[in-house]
Amino acid sequence: MIDGKKILFSGMQATGNLTLGNYLGALKNWVTLCDEYECFYSVVDLHSITVRQDPAELRKRARSLLTLYIAAGLDPEKNCIYYQSHVSGHSELSWILNCYTYMGELNRMTQFKDKAAKHADNINAGLFTYPVLMAADILLYQTDVVPVGKDQLQHLEITRDIAQRFNAIYGDVFAIPEPYIGKTGASIKSLQAPEKKMSKSDENPNASIYLMDDPDTVMRKFKRAVTDLEAQVRYNPEQAGIYNLINIYSACTGKTPEEIEREFDGKGYGDFKAAVGEAVVSVLRPLQERYTDLCQNKDYINSVIKNNAEKANYYAMKTLRKVQKKIGFPERIR
Fold first, then answer.
1. Which residues have C-beta within 8 Å of that of residue 112, sequence separation ≥ 6?
2. Are 28 and 18 in contact (CB under 8 A)?
3. Active site residue: 5, 6, 200, 326, which one?
4. Which one of 138, 168, 277, 305 counts the least CB within 10 Å of its CB?
């Protein structure tokens, strides 16, 4: 705990462009958590290099993501917003935890199998030990809670296993993190394949709404969104396309699915798609304006990067020194 608050950690990779799904499913809800938790939000650029990156592009995307965190409403005075690569404790603790993680555990990780299939020409050791770095991310700050989706739950489980194993050997060193259970974000699906979640790595440019899409692009993508032949706006999971659009409209307007069904009773899909697009444009406009303003204020963003890295390093080193002492590393002479 810090100042009586439990600690919460989360982060996003500095690759691709954030989507409406990232915002409505996670980022929007992070904004309210600082009142209850001491929050650490990382731009996880170390994780990004398991896939080959263009160096200049990676730096650009990392800064863009950190700026988007702030544009979305995360106050850097109340939340610690920082680059993972600026806190060496992530890498140092990751190596130590590698020595307390079993090959069999890593072999069972489904995400490794999925990513290895997508990047068959670059199945590197980092891709295999990715869950250990994620465990280090979490345990480094004595994290109590971690917001996770279903696809990340396995990573939290191995983090708990590693922490409990380490604690069993050396005593009470790490807090054991729990999954964050609170207000869940909207589950936003692809506009072209609504059985899959909206992804920033989707090869189909019409499948995802990106946070910096201009209004014309947003409207065009919704016009092309996959629906069905039912021609009724009903909140029915079997109508996957319309079901997804209702979830998006609900998340953007605050209206319930029942209210939405009544609003569009007797109206066609064209009217409904246009309304969803307009609602999304209204949500994205202030975020985009704030982002543009922040990009022009380089000194402010630089100060956030510097100050938040110092804060993250302070708490990271407290844990790292404790771990180093427990396993028998020589003390540093100061």
1. 106, 127, 128, 130, 131
2. no
3. 200
4. 168
Q: Does residue 311 sit within a domain?
A: yes
Q: pLDDT tens track of the chain, all 334 residues?
A: 888 899 999 999 988 789 999 999 889 889 989 889 999 999 999 999 988 889 999 999 999 999 999 999 999 999 999 999 999 999 999 999 999 999 989 988 877 767 766 767 778 888 889 999 999 999 999 999 998 876 678 889 999 999 999 999 999 999 999 998 766 567 899 999 999 999 888 889 999 999 999 999 999 999 999 999 888 999 999 999 999 999 999 999 999 999 999 999 989 999 999 999 999 999 999 999 999 999 999 999 999 999 999 999 999 999 999 999 999 999 888 7
Q: Which amino acid does the sequence have at 221?
A: K
The answer to whether residues 27 and 126 belong to one domain is yes
User: Which of 28, 197, 221, 273 is the catalytic position?
Assistant: 197
**158 and 26 together in one domain:** yes
Give which of 17, 15, 12, 86 is closest to 48, Cα–Cα.
15
pTM of the model: 0.90
Q: Quick one: 77 and 111 in the same domain? A: yes
Is 306 annotated in the active site?
no
5 is catalytic: no
Domain with 268 in it: 215-293
Element (H, E) at 142: none
